[in-house]
Design brief:
seven-stranded mixed β-sheet; 8 helices
């Protein structure tokens, strides 16, 4: 995936297809990855550094496909868009989950907290994706998207977290308040694409952060490892830092089955999913976004709709998919239940059984003895079998 950045020589790359040796989660000293003296950083504080096929020396970019819309189009959408109404709240039909402290052996347990936050428990490890427990996803406490339902796990019931996978810097994915709470309690290892460590450490310097590029492999402990994979998106915290950091998906391996978390991504002619198939083979479980997609003329390059997500599921040849990025925060024009309705229609159109791709709701749990052959907890607390065909 382009030129290899000199300060990341110690991080194995997916293209090398190395067997990662057993190792414990890195300590703060080994994870900060400061460049050796004389090496050029991938991105210096003033935004300049070594270029690659997705970094021009100042900003990151998508190597292929449509670009992200600009300010003029944003204003056109905001002032001319037709937003479907949402009710005052959207309570989940599932009770709050109280997860176990650990899940050992080959079992995998996935609990949906909301939006893009999953608790992944497998192989004795507890992982969180894009953790958000805050009431609002915004740089401001008084404005911006707010929750329509509470997190599917009460923070007090959350088990000790070993590692956090951050896909990019948008406020609905990188919630600094939640990250500080998790660090104060658990000191988890934070894994993030290039350019985000400075944001994470702006308020506190003691985070254990590993920044990595697409194709880099990060050990999680034991045989478990995570590889950063391309996504078609963008990132910003403020108007002036647009795309000065990278965005990513993740493939988690060594936990009894491969789990793919797509992060935030557009379909991009299927390129992100062809890449995962080519490098890793079919994942056992694919976590795919299905919401925040209308209007298509504006959102298409950066967010999949449910039909895109089902097509991605088929390209991946995954055993099971779980849909997220819908129903928690009102970000775009579609109504709150439209992603689930459109997903059901897309599954029918593609001839895929509905229980192979679930639109997850807060508190809902999916688990298995071996990924893809397990069950989901239904709304009344019973078990719903998930066949693989």
């Amino acid at each position: 995936m382009g030129r290899r950045h000199p300060e990341r020589r110690g991080i194995p790359r997916d293209e090398d297809r190395l067997d990662v040796p057993a190792t414990d989660i890195p300590t703060r000293d080994t994870a900060t990855r400061d460049p050796p003296a004389g090496d050029t950083p991938a991105m210096s504080p003033d935004g300049r550094g070594a270029s690659s096929d997705h970094f021009d020396g100042k900003r990151f970019f998508n190597p292929h496909g449509a670009g992200v819309r600009g300010l003029r189009d944003l204003l056109r959408w905001r002032f001319r868009g037709k937003r479907e109404p949402w009710p005052p709240s959207l309570p989940s039909p599932f009770a709050l989950d109280v997860p176990p402290s650990r899940v050992d052996g080959a079992a995998v347990r996935i609990s949906f907290v909301g939006h893009a936050t999953f608790l992944i428990q497998a192989g004795g490890l507890n992982l969180l994706t894009d953790p958000v427990w805050s009431e609002r996803v915004s740089p401001f406490r008084f404005a911006g998207p707010s929750r329509y339902n509470p997190p599917g796990i009460d923070f007090a019931d959350l088990p000790r977290i070993d590692a956090i996978l951050l896909s990019h810097g948008h406020y609905d994915h990188m919630d600094l308040e939640t990250l500080c709470r998790l660090w104060d309690r658990d000191q988890p290892h934070v894994i993030t694409p290039l350019g985000h460590a400075s944001v994470l450490r702006a308020g506190r310097s003691d985070y254990t952060v590993t920044e990595a590029d697409w194709g880099d492999i990060i050990p999680l402990g034991g045989r478990a490892r995570v590889t950063l994979v391309p996504a078609h998106h963008w990132t910003a915290r403020w108007p002036w830092d647009r795309n000065k950091a990278l965005w990513t998906g993740f493939v988690i391996e060594g936990l009894g089955g491969a789990i793919y978390f797509a992060g935030d991504t557009g379909f991009d002619n299927g390129r992100p999913f062809h890449h995962v198939m080519r490098r890793h083979g079919p994942p056992d479980l694919a976590l795919l976004p299905i919401g925040a997609y209308e209007p298509r003329w504006f959102m298409g390059p950066q967010h999949m709709n449910p039909d895109d997500a089902v097509t991605a599921f088929r390209l991946l040849s995954a055993r099971q998919a779980l849909g997220y990025h819908w129903g928690t925060f009102r970000l775009t024009d579609e109504g709150p239940e439209q992603p689930a309705i459109d997903l059901a229609a897309a599954l029918a159109a593609h001839g895929v059984a509905p229980n192979r791709f679930l639109p997850m709701r807060p508190g809902q749990v999916w688990h298995s003895g071996a990924v893809g052959s397990g069950d989901a907890v239904d709304a009344d607390g019973g078990r719903a079998e998930i066949p693989l065909t």
